[in-house]
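ligand=flavin-adenine dinucleotide
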Amino acid sequence: MFPLKERLLRRMISKKCFFEIIYQIISNIPYWLFYGKFVNIDTLEGGESMKVVIIGNSAAGINALEEFRKHDKESEVTLISKEGGVAYSRVLLPYYLRGKVDYDTFFIRDNDFYKEMNTRYIEAAVTNIDEEKRLVEIDSGKRFSFDKLLIATGSSAMKPPIEGLAGEGVYNMWTLEDVKNIKPLFKKGNRVLVLGSGFVSLQAAWAAICKELDVTIYELAPRIMPRVLDDMGAKLLHEKITQHGGKLHLNTLTQRIERKEDGTMVIHAKDKESIEVDLIIVGTGVRPNIGFLENTSVGIDRGILVDEKMETNVSGIYSAGDVAQGPTAFGEKHVIHALWPTAIEMGKIAGANMAGKELEYEGSLNMNVTQLFEITVASMGRFMDEEGNEIWEHYDEKEGSYLKVVLEDGIPVGGTIAGGSDLVAFLGVLRPFIRKKQGIEDSPEKLMETLHKKIASTPTKNILEII
Ligand SMILES: Cc1cc2nc3c(=O)[nH]c(=O)nc-3n(C[C@H](O)[C@H](O)[C@H](O)COP(=O)(O)OP(=O)(O)OC[C@H]3O[C@@H](n4cnc5c(N)ncnc54)[C@H](O)[C@@H]3O)c2cc1C
């Protein structure tokens, strides 16, 4: 038996607990009535500070958070991400498969980052948004209230509806999880089919060749990398792929995958002899992650429509990165560029504006630079030959170097390079002319000469920094 004093104390505590529980139930009744089910609504009560929710833990989300915190140290910030763990760079995934970077190099921030940003980090998928009640719901049913919201959910890689494609041994190369699945199959002598010949697919194919896999690429279109390279750049890269042993088939329709008991797969494509492989990497397109916005009034076309401030049509709801369709350097209002630097730029603008600044985005200038099959290929702006445009080209067959400038009414609007990595300096020189819409007064010959001088005087290690 406890002494009297202790018994009284215990009774008081249990009474307090009882009243506490009753209080909790009563205080939740309004939410019950309002939202239909009993959920824990976090951050709904208490405190005068603004409540900010950021969905996405990658280039756009992280840069928005950092920029926001530069201007606002007080507000309550919650960052939600479906892919757990510390933020990492997708750009490095193929380099990891090639063995060029270690696992640790992936991560673009460290473990303490979220604490330093005074941010609550929730690993969960957002399933719903109620823009009127200003609530975000995650897969557990829990809801978070917000005053300002950033949607930076990027995009996901798709798999086409080919019979037998779903299942083991078939992966995209889009997430850290994907490369963890691919890595054990990246063994010398294994046979891989790469579906698609876009930027990511060819990165996967090159990584496989570097690891001495037997590589076949099936592409439905008549040429490779249509969104990244002009015809000449594509032709030069195509030659390099073949020289390195890649079996590249254009105009090829994959029809059916037959699965064998030992785990290997037989690929049936139209008008082709069937081939057997151990692994398939699919790079046939991506889709913005916007499913949770289905029943909202947030303006959507292919992605989320944003203005120069990265704000959507719903006041206080912003979007940035691959999921957002925003302004470009050429004055177009709504384009998805799906590039890492664009995601960073958009994220910074969104973060500043969410903190009450008035910043406007000058527009994304698309630029793709990649080194694969021992050639550097890159493009910037409007690089395709279009009717009415003036083209200045320089091709040195012996050196295997190709440079091109596209001009509209005397103003450069884009360029392409293919050859040594030193040529990237060319795009560095061209970039301000495109941004400032400034004409090039030199003759084509003079311009090429200036560019060559610039390239020659730029130390190789600084070349990528120029851009
Ligand atoms: C293999 C590869 C190579 C690349 N190479 C280059 C390159 O060389 N140069 C270049 O410019 N670009 C490159 N890119 C593209 C670049 O990675 C993207 O443009 C960039 O990652 C976009 O950043 P983001 O923040 O908009 O979205 P993402 O990086 O896609 O991140 C989206 C975030 O949102 C989260 N999320 C998604 N849905 C939900 C949800 N429902 N609920 C909660 N969280 C959610 C995810 O967990 C993730 O944290 C490459 C991409 C890949 C896959």
